[in-house]
């Protein structure tokens, strides 16, 4: 299924007057509105291929319908999202679930939707049918060098798939950990991981990045071998200039100050990318901004400030990706909600009066500093984000149009009731 | 597979001298040792049928071998455990996974292993193939009365299965909750749950108990409709004298003082039962006592004190059950470790000098109170627990004997490599 | 110091045009804007007398200047706040710090600022110079009946002071708890507390309420005798119809769903009042809405929904109070920021389309339910809150006017550099 | 007050038979018992000068009696502890609270009790009376270079005091942080801290160490500028070989795996020292081992393993210090309980069968690994720790003797009821 230009235009024309009123109002208050819109238009958030199907918990999964049954349909799904919001112009693949049969054909298909291939992701947290050795006790950190070698080779394969598709980064999320005291020698597990990553790093093309993700717990419940940003940074530093830390919002201990971590990683030149989602308790993988929207804004506030301080391009300086699980809501709609929340947070961060904030900080004027951030956050920028979409030919109300066109129903018609997407 | 009396005796005779030395030493320090042994012998911990297979997380499952493929084999597994430690004399079934084809035959089989049927458990957190309406948005709390009715009927069916097997309690763990603000009207969800439970309660035989379990989060990530002990107690109080709260150690927010909750529920006459496991981060479902053994002791300390204050029989006054998930270790060995940890904690709680503690509390002598508990906890009672096993004809070293006899290998021979147990 | 009507009018006239533009824009979108403004005008948040001075931590206190040195100056401070925002029309006193020498004179002074006396607060978490017995090991829960009696008598004295001033409620925040396992018998501590509260309750005038506050930890670090809403509700239920639970936002374990607690307490008719603040880690007592503004909105969403369902008057149905600690910011400005955040959250909760939300919930349309709440939260209602102030004769920009008039400088001139307020 | 040799001997002779029975029993099971005793005898835990008085919370302090009123009396107190257990042979001073008037005399006094001077501690979290600039908004991270300079100079002064007393390390616990989003530019705060620490580092004698402590929160409630081990390690690495991370058990987010942190810091050669205490919720500063004794053992397990792997001397390789707050118990008795818990955990860690554990890890035999650690932890080594004391001329039962001799009563007689120790 592909959205027609006319469908979008028709939708937009109905909402045009209402939008114009709101946009005109807010524009008048924001001298730099054009610059913000410009940046919003350039900002693209990659959609992970595994988020297009219904997710579940260890207690079960309540499947949806019309889910994409193969890589082509996944690309089609992201194409739909991108047509609706023009902010989802990339897809992040998961190997071995998304191995393209014909890379050129796959690229052409993606290209027809205006999509790029973002970071490729390896999987050593599950055993595959044809796999020789098990990852039950870990992969890159494993005590057995043969298992490590197998896992290294898998990552090299993933890089090769990525090269064929035009990806420029490998994301390594390592589930390796332990569930009981005594199970691991922490140091050896760390050293094994480092050695394995070095081998993978050696196969990285010149213009690629290696993203080292960390996670506090789950699927192991006593220790994770790359458990926090400190451990990830240590590894990335030892690996070299192409290695970076990747931050997933749900991968922290309770109450962690993620925005400070982001700031310090940028300071060290070692922040590589981002996985957006939201959570209340653990790695809940909920819609971005659905639980703690102010935190999302504060993180973007640090991102914008820190990237500007280093002269980084917002759109390309870091890898931006959603990593959520859609257990209850239609995955496509859920993703539209996530992208919307991210764009609003980014727009608000762009609106922050940096000079005034710096001045307040210089004077320890905490009241003023708080006011600057809160007043910005309280400013309703939905019309600005919508305007960026409008100018790009996307829908003023992506979810509204999704519903009007009964997109899911049509996908069910095309794909059937019982298709199940690979994924989490 | 059944253990022979001679196998156990032979095993015990090899360890007899070492055991006698340790037991004699500790007995001399404990005047009431015979009373403690007596209570340990009476204390039985039910094994849940779903814990006999390898568990997993949402990221996957690394299956084991020789797992029980049907109810009979599950009973056989618990029979093996009970033969090894004589402390696992009950099995807790999960419906619909464990519906007996012929209840009388099933009872006879269990009886041949010396096993009783503990609380039966209903399942409304997953959809079954033949099920008419989905539990995706909950069951007993559902906005749709037809879904509630279906879930109520399922619980009534479970009661009926339990009656046929001689169970005396129904455990309702309700996964019902929400993952996003706005999804639920909390009050209506609570009221619907109450009405549904009332209907179930009405079908409860006179001598049965209804256990209302609570859980802070997972599988829903914003709210759980029975989320803490306060909500469970509210429901149990409104339901009537046969309704009780069930405490699962892993179902709390970080840092919760579970022993205080236990004490207050006992005070109210509303503590019904216990699910043992251990955890560091969330509902990790690890081996009992593997992470916080002192907490396990402190909980037993409150249980013993509180049950004695009400004149309750330790063995029968509450429902005792393990509820753990065995993702990495052999489930049977893991269960042996859990039972051992529970028995040690119980033995230590029996050893606490109640009068001295009360005296210290009366004098606000905190140093003394702490010393009493810590000195008891530091006392090595493994030989006392072993003595209780010895007298009951169980193994001095259950895991040692499990390994000596290569029990799992034999089960694999009997059942094959690829059997997979239903369960979590 | 008293603000003159002209000072405010002059301030408002400068901002009038800007305000009008924003208010006109938003009013057009909100048919019920007049009803919302009306409710905002009626809504008053009590200021605690102990929040008017600089707070500290156990590591120290960095005092401010010009702090109120006596009860009269505290009333004057709240009078200033109320003149600035017309939303702080009550003061909550702390005994023994604020014992009025002459109740009639004190009432007259408060009256001259348009202030009422909200709930009075007792203090049994510190020893006073003249006190006979120590509260080191607790007060109402103490093992020694003489200590309990002393603490009961103190609470009765507090009630009597409150009667003289026209208060209608007593708030009991009980620091009683324990820091080490074994220190307390939880049941006896609870029973002692209940008996003590019964005696206090017996002295409560007919038209008074007793607020039973709970707190998870601090100043004790193992258990708190009234540690969560379940324990508070249990006490309030046993005490009788005049006893209620009071919720302080900072008094929970990490990740607690406070809005659900609020909803259930309202359902039970047992929610009595609220202490507003914000926190990231513990009972941080930060400015309301400064860390988790969306949570504040969600709580108000439940409050409005639940009070409406019971036909309660928003302004008088519950006790509304700030309970924050101002360690770094000027207490008066900090309080203005808290009140502003509370009013915005309340306004947004009033704006939620209840029928649409109920409809979405009825259909399990989670996307829609989330959208309703988030769209409301993203709507900028600052101009509506400002309009309510404007109509009441308060300042369009209270903090702006506070700064323009250099209020603190003038207070320093009047009171001196080294005055220190009693309090936390 | 000084304990006489005869008092201890008399006490020990009464307990000799009981002790001998327990020690003989356990020794028979432990071939390496002499080596363990030897290491226990060498192991000394420094007592912080600020822990000798009653501590408090922001809600107040319930003072004790007979507290040390000056540095000499603090040394006397530690001398008493050391006489009782011969494991507290060092004192850690806090400047400016403990500035010696005459360093030589102070050293001689300490020497007469067999005490060394451990790390000296600076204080920039409070303002002192004579201080020019305030630390309200931080010290080493302050935006104002003049404040930073003042704080640097204070640390240099502390080093100089330490040199005079024979200390070999400076502990910098930096309270610097922020309580509100926007208050700080995280990067600049970090860079300012680094620059300040560099100046301090430059004044460090050749044979000194600089300990960089971290803390997750409190006294600031949004961010701490040195908030976790990652930030501390980053600073220590940039500073140079004399800079190390110091771990305080209470300074982590909920559920942190501290033993893993310890292991990795040792791996990096950057673990400098330890502050022992225990906690359930936050930085509760409770008696070591009073809440999570198994965690304390697991930490020592990593310390012993990691130090042995680097060939470090256990007694001198790291700085060992208690950092607890004694709000309820007699500080001296509380410290005796802490030291006892630490020595037991250390003894158990020494008992772990390293080869068997390594073998189990190599085979992914998780059951065995868990058993090795738990069996060791369940082994009662109190008699071994007591034997180490006995051989050193200390008391078999230090708290028993403290009570027999009514030490506190005698101190009250000497010092009076109302002395108050400086400290936390």
Automatic annotation (TrEMBL), chains A, B, C, D:
It holds the Pfam family AP_endonuc_2. Residues 100-285 form the Xylose isomerase-like TIM barrel domain. It comes from the Bacteria. Keywords: Isomerase, Manganese, Metal-binding. GO terms for molecular function: isomerase activity. InterPro entries: L-rhamnose_isomerase (IPR050337), Xyl_isomerase-like_sf (IPR036237), Xyl_isomerase-like_TIM-brl (IPR013022). This is Sugar isomerase. It comes from Sphingobacterium hotanense.
